[in-house]
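To the wet lab folks,

You asked to see what we're planning to order before we commit. Fair enough. Below is the target structure as tokens, and below that is the sequence we designed to fit it. If anything looks off to you, flag it before the synthesis order goes out.
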């Protein structure tokens, strides 16, 4: 498979890359779906639910407060470093990530479009003020000492399974600027991706020769739309993902193996 990928990239030396949750599992961040694309746990909270219910926000922030420390400690793995090296070698023009971690940046990748935002920021829904997530964490733990030392099962994107907890007792800080509702600065399920990020991604696709999808089932339309656009433009699409994807019938080449070893081997083959 590495030889086939190497040949493909030699023939299409300017790539647009899209990454999903599967690339960060080796960094200790669980993914959302199994190899058939089904939810591993219950579907994540939606934008409408978060905005429309104070209790839903209490539940979200209680679980997030416990899941955040592990998420924040995550470090880039071989797959992140390999993609950064492919960029430095001139093969990757732009990387679009559906992930809300900062691992591509930490690995040294420079031209990144965080399609769904970054969990390391919190935004006020009323005035637009942005604060660091770590600041929110300190306030949450100080206001809710009962969260200390609770044992949880970790989920994707800093979530945690928290049972037998009185969510209604959860104290949530308000925006220091206006007293408004604070939300992680990420795109929730059911929320629209900001137009400028979509346009940057589609413009990047115009400049590239092919599309490489890494660690994504492409079940979410925000990522799948780039595959569809690539096919419409006659540009080939390759996938490296353990399970099936929404775009299986549209792929020029499909590699159903772990991202890290394949990408690391690919870089070695291109350099040799």
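Sequence we intend to order:
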């Amino acid at each position: 498979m590495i030889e086939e990928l190497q040949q493909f990239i030699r023939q299409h030396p300017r790539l647009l890359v899209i990454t999903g949750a599967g690339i960060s599992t080796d960094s200790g961040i669980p993914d959302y779906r199994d190899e058939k694309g089904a939810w591993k746990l219950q579907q994540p909270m939606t934008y409408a639910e978060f905005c429309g219910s104070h209790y839903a926000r209490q539940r979200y922030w209680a679980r997030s407060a416990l899941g955040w420390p592990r998420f924040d400690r995550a470090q880039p793995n071989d797959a992140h470093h390999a993609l950064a090296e492919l960029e430095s070698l001139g093969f990757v023009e732009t990387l679009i990530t559906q992930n809300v971690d900062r691992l591509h940046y930490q690995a040294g990748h420079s031209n990144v479009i965080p399609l769904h935002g970054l969990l390391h920021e919190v935004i006020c829904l009323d005035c637009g003020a942005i604060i660091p997530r770590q600041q929110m964490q300190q306030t949450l733990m100080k206001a809710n000492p009962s969260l200390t030392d609770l044992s949880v099962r970790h989920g994707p994107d800093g979530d945690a399974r928290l049972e037998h907890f009185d969510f209604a007792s959860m104290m949530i800080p308000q925006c220091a600027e206006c007293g408004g509702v604070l939300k992680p600065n990420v795109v929730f399920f059911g929320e629209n991706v900001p137009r400028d990020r979509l346009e940057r991604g589609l413009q990047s696709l115009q400049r590239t020769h092919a599309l490489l999808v890494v660690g994504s089932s492409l079940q979410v339309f925000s990522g799948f739309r780039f595959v569809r656009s690539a096919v419409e433009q006659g540009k080939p699409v390759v996938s490296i993902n353990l399970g099936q994807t929404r775009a299986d019938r549209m792929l020029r080449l499909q590699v159903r193996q772990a991202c890290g070893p394949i990408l690391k081997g690919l870089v070695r083959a291109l350099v040799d």
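Structural context that might help your review: The chain has two domains: 1-29+76-116+193-272, 40-73+118-186. The radius of gyration is 19 Å.

Thanks,
Computational group
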